Amino acid sequence: MVVFCVIKLALYLQTVLLKSGPPQRDIHYWLGNEANKVDSALASDKALELDAALGSCAVQYREVLGQETEIFLSYF
């Protein structure tokens, strides 16, 4: 059985709880092959909304299929 799934975009939140101080948060928004300009804008807007909800202290990363950052790939 072959299952085919196309994912246009995804949001990923990584939170590290430190012994002292506020949590360290990274927000990655990932764009797949099928993502267009509207999808890219939506992912960016949702990442900003998530960051605002968390107190505007997260680092945001834009990830593109095949060009992902090492930090993003290290999560998997």
TrEMBL record:
Signal peptide: 1-18
Protein's recorded name: Gelsolin-like domain-containing protein
Segments forming domain Gelsolin-like: 22-73
Classification via Pfam families: Gelsolin
SUPFAM superfamilies reported for this sequence: Actin depolymerizing proteins
InterPro entries for this protein: ADF-H/Gelsolin-like_dom_sf, Gelsolin-like_dom, Villin/Gelsolin
A GO molecular-function descriptor: actin filament binding
Keyword check for GTP-binding: no
Keywords: Signal
PANTHER family per record: VILLIN, VILLIN-1
Coiled coil: none
